[in-house]
Inverse folding.
């Protein structure tokens, strides 16, 4: 067992883990179940979280890698009763159906908009290639990301 310290959704946390624990296992064990377990091979994007602002596949990232760093999950986006602009844009643009992939999609899109506040549709498509949705057409997802880009201050 090893102790690590991290900022999880803005809150300082110290946890004791075994070396082989994956980041997805850690966040889910702490009650943050928005991060999904799906492919376990870094292919689908359902487990995407932001590690120091960069999207990572939590299913292949060791929790140890988060020591001394900041982790953002979908639960950390909304502030009080106010949805993040990306969350609202996904609702407004009908960019989800079952919702399984949505947390990973939104976090990947947040990383894009943090890096490129006004992306083109092609840039959105390229950036989101690592996130698979089995239910909906991708155009509504692209529309939602572009909509959210227009809502940002």
């Amino acid at each position: 067992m090893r102790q690590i310290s991290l900022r999880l959704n803005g809150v300082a946390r110290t946890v004791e883990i075994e070396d082989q624990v994956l980041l997805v296992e850690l966040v889910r064990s702490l009650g943050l179940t928005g991060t999904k377990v799906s492919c376990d091979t870094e292919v689908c994007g359902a487990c995407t979280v932001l590690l120091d602002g960069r999207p990572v596949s939590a299913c292949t990232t060791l929790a140890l890698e988060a020591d001394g760093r900041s982790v953002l999950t979908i639960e950390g986006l909304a502030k009080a009763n106010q949805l993040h602009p990306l969350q609202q844009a996904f609702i407004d643009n009908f960019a989800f159906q079952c919702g399984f992939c949505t947390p990973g999609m939104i976090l990947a899109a947040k990383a894009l908009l943090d890096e490129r506040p006004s992306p083109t549709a092609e840039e959105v498509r390229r950036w989101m290639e690592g996130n698979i949705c089995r239910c909906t057409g991708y155009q509504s997802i692209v529309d939602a990301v572009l909509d959210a880009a227009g809502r940002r201050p």
Observations:
- DSSP finds five helices and five strands in the chain.
- The chain has a mean pLDDT of 95.
- Helices lie at 23-29, 85-92, 102-115, 121-127, 138-151.
- The radius of gyration is 15 Å.
